[in-house]
Amino acid sequence: MHFDKMVDEITKKRITPTQITVCIICFLLSLCFTIQVRTINTSESDILRLKKENELRDEIEQWKEVYEASVQKNEELNKKVEEYRTASAKNDDTVKIMKKELDEANILAGISKVKGKGITVKLDDTAVIEEINEASGYYNPNVYVIHDTDIISVINELAAAGAEAFSVNGQRIIATTAIRCVGPVIQINGINLSAPYTISAIGEPVTLKGALRLRGGIVSEMQSAKIDVTIEEHEEIIIPAYDRVLKYQYATSVLEVE
């Protein structure tokens, strides 16, 4: 019934079949266009989503590589630090050994100030000279005064008993020290010294004192010559360093090759 009505209207409006066909074709084209647009929009959305996922995946992979590289680098650095610590500990031990050897060499050379327990030996000829002067008798002054040989003999006895450092009236005794009489004084390291003479020695006090007091030893001989000898033990003696310039013009080290 409706169809008949439409036909009547079409007939009244005089719409041709060609126009109807064109309308149908336009409708179909519009429908196809709409479907195509929706398909394109959906495809673009999927493409963008896939693109973002791929980019994120790539970024994740890149950061993963960076992280792994950082972990590896950190492990290498930690290994290096441990190697440096080990080497440093070894170097510290080496430095300590070298420093100890250098300190000992300086003590033997006499160029460093040292301290330790030991004894002092005081030699004085003043009392005997005054006694002889009072008696006004004849005497040989060379017999009743202290000579360089007396000081050298005391130092030799102390060295044989294990003394490690010596000084006479503050003058450090080293390998090149000259001890000699110059008129009424004794010259040590080029310095003129007069009585009383105080010989300081670092070592075991009891041993050093016993070596000097042996029967018939150096102290007995001096006391027979009426030279005052006073020996004292000390818990700490300070012996100064050799304060003159050590210069060797002719002596040089010899390197032994195996």
Secondary-structure blueprint:
Elements: H1 2-13, H2 17-109, E1 114-124, H3 126-135, H4 148-160, E2 165-168, E3 171-172, E4 179-182, E5 185-188, E6 191-193, E7 197-202, H5 205-212, H6 218-224, E8 228-239
Antiparallel strand pairs: 1-7, 1-8, 2-3, 2-7, 4-5, 5-6
Written description of the protein model:
It is a single chain. The protein contains six helices and eight strands. It is of the alpha+beta class and 258 residues long. Helix content is 55%, strand content 18%. It is rod-shaped and about 170 Å long. It has a domain at 113-239: Alpha-Beta Plaits. Helix 4 (148-160) crosses helix 5. The model has no long low-confidence stretch (mean pLDDT 76). The protein has a five-stranded antiparallel beta sheet with strand order 3-2-7-1-8. Strands 4-5-6 form a three-stranded antiparallel beta sheet, covered by helices on one side.
Attribute tags:
three-stranded antiparallel beta sheet, 55% helix, five-stranded antiparallel beta sheet, 258 residues, 6 helices, Alpha-Beta Plaits, alpha+beta
In summary, what is this structure?
This protein has six helices and eight strands. The protein is an alpha+beta fold and 258 residues long.
* Gyration radius over CA: 56 Å
Can you tell me the CATH topology of one domain?
Alpha-Beta Plaits
Low-confidence stretches: none
Alpha-carbon distance between the termini? 133 Å
Helix content: 55-70%
What structural class should be given to the helix and strand makeup? alpha+beta
CATH class of one domain: Alpha Beta
Strand content: 15-25%
**Arithmetic mean pLDDT:** 76
Strand order of the largest sheet: 3-2-7-1-8
Number of strands: 8
Shape: rod-shaped
The ordered string of helix (H) and strand (E) elements is: HHEHHEEEEEEHHE
